[in-house]
């Protein structure tokens, strides 16, 4: 018991003093209860000094407040200060820096490369100057860098602006060196100079003995050689168009009628007063009613007198142009002689009082129909293949001609001067057709293309060329003005729209005739219901416009039927011409 009492006394001494105000159920411990032992608390985590962490967080916050905005970012996640918004953009640091600004502004693997506004010539000049003299201009500071002593010595010259005296000095030095080389050669052995295997001979004979042309002996040409040379030069001149323009033939005209004016004083070209269309419906002719013969060679083109058709003009390969009466006697009224070679094309003015002729003698002539006088003559030294007058009443003084040298030339008839040239074709120009109320015109050429031009503007507004296209030596407009018919040399007639796009009408195609190799004229009836064309076998073909079917064929000529024209007033009458020298009238 004594031991237990001493143990209890020790417990009481070690335990802390009790609060006297606390109420306990048992002031003295029970001898049966176990002793309570309080152990000191310990943390398992290591002791960490968080002073640096706090400083780092505070530093990042301060840096974020003072850091300039990244111009590559499109979104700002905080409210920047005025200083941040207006802070200058600094160049990037090291390319491997973790700074977002540096990463965003990098445009090269070594950092940020800035374009300098300096011309290549200026850069080369300064680079070469620095390589030679050791100094150059610093464009950023507008000052010199490098060897400043050399700069003063050379008076700041660059390699590209050496002063005149310096250039002269260099020339003299080069000349002196050359003279010294030649002087040294005087001391060398002559055997070495004459030996091609030595370096001395090579230096002496720098220029090849075969350089330059050896001038042969001038030998007198024989008469036969002179004659051949003259003929060859003449032939080549003709092929190239020749620089010299051919001498025009003296024009003359012969009247074959009874009298040039009737008893009332009316001219022989005046249309009959009762000439008018009976109705608008046209019919296909069936029989031959008249033949005009007078040309000694083939007839290349025919044209009815505008609006009335009481006269018909013909162009012959015998270099003559004749005009024939249609209504009354049916005889030749006048012959116009002014070309030295075959006449290629003819064209009336709007009232028929004047007409144009184009010949293979390279001349275009403007005639007075009544008197047979030549009003004006035009030439460029090239062969005109087609001539046209502007159909507008106020532009009847404007002449367009398609030439053999790929050009369309425009003249003013009053002054005789060339006012415009349309030069885009790659071959001789064959046709000129005015469309769209005469504001535009379509041309065809040997280059197998169609080109559309604005009148007066030498720029193509529409170019039509396909691999399957052939040359189109004849084009005629439809009476309604919405279509043009083009005679293609692959034995068909193609229809193109004259609207904005000038598209090929694939649904309308007229075929059956043989025209390959011949510029057979294609035409329309005045009401637009029929298409007619000659062919290479002397026939005249008639097609229905709507169905595109062959309506009728007439055997008209022996040889080629080159031209066919529908009478402007007579509904069922057609004139044809051929290379047999005849003009035939069909009803």
From TrEMBL:
Keywords: mRNA processing, mRNA splicing, Nucleus, Repeat, Spliceosome, WD repeat
Full protein name: Pre-mRNA-processing factor 17
Protein's cellular compartments: Nucleus
PROSITE patterns: WD_REPEATS_1, WD_REPEATS_2, WD_REPEATS_REGION
GO cellular component: catalytic step 2 spliceosome
PANTHER family attached to this UniProt entry: PRE-MRNA-PROCESSING FACTOR 17 (PTHR43979)
Top-level taxon of origin: Eukaryota
Main subcellular location: nucleus
One MF term in the entry's GO annotations: mRNA binding
One Pfam short name: WD40
GO biological process: mRNA splicing, via spliceosome
């Amino acid at each position: 018991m004594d031991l237990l009492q001493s143990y209890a006394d020790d417990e009481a001494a070690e335990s802390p003093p009790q609060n006297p105000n606390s109420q306990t159920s048992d002031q003295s411990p029970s001898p049966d209860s176990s002793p309570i032992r309080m152990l000191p608390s310990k943390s398992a985590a290591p002791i960490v000094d968080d002073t640096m962490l706090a400083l780092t967080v505070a530093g990042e916050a301060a840096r974020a407040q003072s850091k300039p905005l990244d111009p590559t970012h499109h979104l700002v996640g905080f409210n920047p200060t005025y200083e941040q918004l207006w802070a200058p953009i600094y160049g990037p640091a090291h390319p491997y820096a973790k700074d977002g600004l540096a990463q965003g502004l990098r445009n090269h693997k070594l950092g940020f490369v800035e374009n300098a506004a300096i011309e290549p010539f200026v850069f080369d000049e300064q680079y070469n100057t620095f390589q030679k003299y050791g100094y150059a201009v610093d464009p950023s500071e507008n000052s010199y860098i490098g060897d400043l002593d050399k700069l003063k010595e050379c008076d700041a010259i660059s390699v590209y602006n050496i002063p005149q005296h310096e250039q002269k000095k260099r020339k003299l030095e080069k000349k002196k060196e050359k003279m010294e080389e030649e002087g040294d050669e005087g001391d060398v052995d002559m055997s070495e100079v004459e030996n091609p295997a030595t370096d001395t001979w090579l230096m002496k004979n720098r220029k090849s003995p075969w350089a330059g042309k050896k001038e042969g002996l001038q030998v007198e040409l024989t008469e036969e050689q002179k004659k051949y040379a003259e003929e060859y030069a003449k032939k080549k001149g003709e092929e190239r168009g020749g620089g010299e323009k051919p001498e025009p033939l003296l024009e003359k005209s012969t009247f074959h009628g009874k009298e040039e004016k009737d008893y009332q004083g009316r001219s022989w070209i005046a249309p009959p007063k009762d000439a008018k269309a009976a109705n608008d419906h046209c019919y296909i002719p069936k029989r031959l009613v008249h033949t005009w013969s007078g040309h000694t060679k083939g007839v290349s083109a025919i044209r009815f007198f505008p609006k009335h058709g009481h006269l018909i003009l013909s162009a012959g390969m015998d270099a003559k142009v004749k005009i024939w009466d249609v209504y009354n006697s049916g005889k030749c009224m006048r012959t116009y002689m002014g070309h030295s070679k075959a006449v290629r094309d003819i064209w009336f003015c709007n009232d028929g009082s004047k007409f144009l002729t184009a010949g293979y003698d390279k001349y275009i002539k403007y005639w007075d129909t009544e008197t047979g006088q030549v009003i004006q003559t035009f030439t460029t030294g090239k062969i005109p293949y087609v001539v046209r007058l502007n159909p507008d009443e106020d532009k009847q003084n404007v002449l367009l001609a398609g030439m053999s040298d790929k050009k369309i030339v425009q003249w003013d008839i009053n002054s005789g001067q060339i006012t415009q040239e349309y030069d885009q074709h790659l071959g001789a120009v064959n046709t000129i057709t005015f469309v769209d109320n005469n504001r535009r015109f379509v041309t065809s050429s040997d280059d197998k293309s169609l080109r559309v031009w604005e009148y007066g503007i030498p720029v193509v507004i529409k170019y039509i060329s396909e691999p399957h296209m052939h040359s189109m030596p004849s084009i005629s407009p439809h009476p309604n003005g919405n279509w043009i018919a083009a005679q293609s040399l692959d034995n068909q007639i193609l229809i193109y729209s004259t609207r904005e796009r000038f598209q090929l009408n694939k649904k309308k195609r007229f075929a059956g005739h043989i025209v390959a190799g011949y510029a057979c004229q294609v035409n329309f009836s005045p009401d637009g219901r029929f298409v007619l064309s000659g062919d290479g076998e002397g026939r005249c073909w008639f097609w229905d416009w709507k169905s595109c079917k062959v309506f009728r064929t007439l055997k008209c000529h022996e040889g080629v039927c080159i031209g066919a024209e529908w009478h402007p007033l007579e509904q069922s009458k057609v004139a044809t011409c051929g290379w047999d020298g005849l003009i035939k009238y069909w009803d």
